[in-house]
Specification:
- It is a single chain.
- With 147 residues, the protein is of the alpha+beta class.
- 18% of the residues lie in helices and 20% in strands.
- The chain has two helices and six strands.
- The strands form two sheets. Strands 4-1-5-6 form a four-stranded antiparallel β-sheet. Strands 2-3 form a two-stranded antiparallel sheet.
- α1 packs across α2.
- The N and C termini lie far apart (76 Å).
Length: 147
């Protein structure tokens, strides 16, 4: 008769690794909210923003400037009345300042639109997105202005 039990194996017990120093582990401070990948860096200077814009244009991505009020700048879990799927979040989409800048090859034009958006929407977040029109995806996004 065939046995249905799995063969017994001896298992070597490994010792637990040494404990990590407690002061090396820290949670992010409550009032230090972060938004996207570049927001963990210090605020970008105008020259650094120009380099990011140049990178978008050099890759052939379509620049788009968006803005949002201070209270709408964070992605939050949707309330139960609006939840349509487990991955649904409110405030994912911001208001476009103007239409995406299709065919733009001059970073100066993008910087001018960023400046105009900042002046017309004081106290708002302003971000720059880069869209790949071939793959139909957003390839870059960074916060330019944090109120």
């Amino acid at each position: 008769m065939m046995s249905l039990r799995a063969p017994s194996r001896s298992v070597a017990v490994r010792s637990t690794p040494r404990a990590v120093r407690a002061n090396a582990m820290q949670v992010w401070p409550i009032n230090e909210k972060k938004y996207e990948n570049m927001s963990f860096l210090p605020p970008l200077s105008n020259q650094e923003i120009a380099k990011q814009v140049q990178y978008l244009v050099n890759n052939g991505w379509v620049p788009c400037v968006e803005f949002a009020n201070q209270e709408d700048g964070f992605v939050v879990a949707g309330n139960r009345a609006n939840v349509m799927s487990p991955g649904y979040y409110d405030n994912r989409y911001w208001t476009m300042y103007k239409l995406p800048m299709y065919g733009c090859t001059d970073p100066g034009q993008v910087l001018e639109e960023i400046y105009n958006c900042k002046m017309e929407n004081p106290g708002c977040f302003v971000r720059l997105l880069g869209f790949d029109n071939v793959r139909q995806v957003q390839c870059a996004g960074l916060i330019i202005v944090r109120p």
